[in-house]
């Protein structure tokens, strides 16, 4: 009887050990199917990138990545200076593609760069480096691509659909108030010149002209639509001003023209139809900037 009990106990131990090994093998198999990397189809070809990047350096497209809560450890100086992003970027280092030592120090697992930048091959030796060519994608497709790269395509798509819906609805409401044929110019001050923009040069142009469907003056359409930007001198301000003007004010340049009769006699100025935005906070077309400007345009045009 004692011998039978010992034999039974021996087989029970073997059975439990086998079950344990099966569970371990199952866990290992499941773990192996959850890869730490995936292949992203970049504009320069397929590249292995982290599935869940923890230390991202954005030499370009920082705001797009920031909108998707990327774990950014290094960013370009222009984005770092942007008033919209400063709080979100507290503690994030400013880097350039030239400062390779600093980039190595930050130990990135993913780098996002512009195709025009130097040292791309060297950056690739530090971490997988994905490049984007400025202007190759429109502002919504660019956000979608950043979403794909960060393994957050679903979040990017959801924002795109929501933004398009909100902007189209707001645009219809604005046109109902100001009239279908009312024109809108986006003008920015420089040191000795001015700039007027087409429909894809940030400063809210994508919202106003693409998403909302508002009209630009004929002269703006003729000279700035294709190129995206047109430079002109002070005396031509009245010719480029629409019924409404979005004035992108650069605080670092001479804006004394605002006190001149030339400016004050422009119909949009006399009618109180000039809405001022900060140049430094409006030079991107990422979700954070677009949502901020969409709210601003809605409250300005509709006097909310």
UniProtKB/TrEMBL annotation:
InterPro entries: ABC_transptr_periplasmic_BD, Bact_iron-sidero_bind. Residues 1-22 form the signal peptide. Pfam families: Peripla_BP_2 (PF01497). Residues 55-304 form the Fe/B12 periplasmic-binding domain. Its main location: membrane. Keywords: Signal, Transport. It comes from the Bacteria. CDD domains: FeuA (cd01138). It is a lipid-anchor. It is found in: Cell membrane. Residues 24-35 have a biased composition (Basic and acidic residues). Residues 23-45 are annotated as: Disordered. Belongs to the bacterial solute-binding protein 8 family. This is Iron-hydroxamate ABC transporter substrate-binding protein. It comes from Psychrobacillus faecigallinarum.
């Amino acid at each position: 009887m004692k011998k039978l009990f010992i034999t039974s106990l021996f087989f029970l131990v073997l059975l439990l050990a086998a079950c344990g090994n099966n569970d371990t093998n199952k866990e290992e198999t499941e773990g192996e199917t959850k890869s730490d990397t995936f292949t992203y189809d970049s504009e320069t070809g397929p590249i292995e990138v982290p599935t869940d990047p923890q230390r991202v350096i954005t030499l370009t497209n920082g705001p797009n990545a920031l909108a998707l809560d990327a774990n950014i450890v290094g960013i370009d100086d222009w984005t770092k200076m942007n008033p919209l992003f400063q709080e979100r970027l507290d503690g994030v280092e400013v880097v350039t593609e030239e400062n390779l030592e600093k980039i190595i120090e930050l130990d990135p697992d993913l780098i996002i760069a512009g195709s025009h930048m130097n040292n791309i091959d060297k950056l690739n030796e530090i971490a997988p480096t994905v490049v984007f060519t400025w202007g190759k994608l429109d502002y919504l497709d660019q956000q979608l691509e950043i979403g794909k790269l960060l393994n957050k395509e679903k979040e990017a798509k959801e924002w795109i659909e929501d933004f398009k819906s909100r902007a189209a609805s707001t645009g219809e409401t604005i046109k109902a108030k100001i009239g279908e044929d009312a024109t809108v110019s986006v003008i920015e001050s420089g040191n000795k010149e001015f700039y007027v923009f087409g429909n894809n040069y940030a400063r809210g142009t994508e919202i106003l002209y693409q998403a909302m469907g508002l009209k630009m003056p004929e002269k703006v359409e003729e000279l700035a639509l294709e190129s995206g930007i047109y430079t002109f001198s002070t005396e031509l301000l009245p010719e480029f001003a629409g019924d409404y003007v979005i004035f992108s004010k650069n605080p670092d340049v001479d804006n004394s023209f605002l006190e001149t009769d030339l400016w004050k006699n422009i119909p949009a100025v006399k009618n109180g139809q000039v809405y001022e935005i900060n140049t430094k906070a409006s030079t991107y077309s990422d979700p954070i900037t677009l949502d901020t400007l969409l709210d601003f345009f809605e409250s300005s045009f509709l006097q909310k």
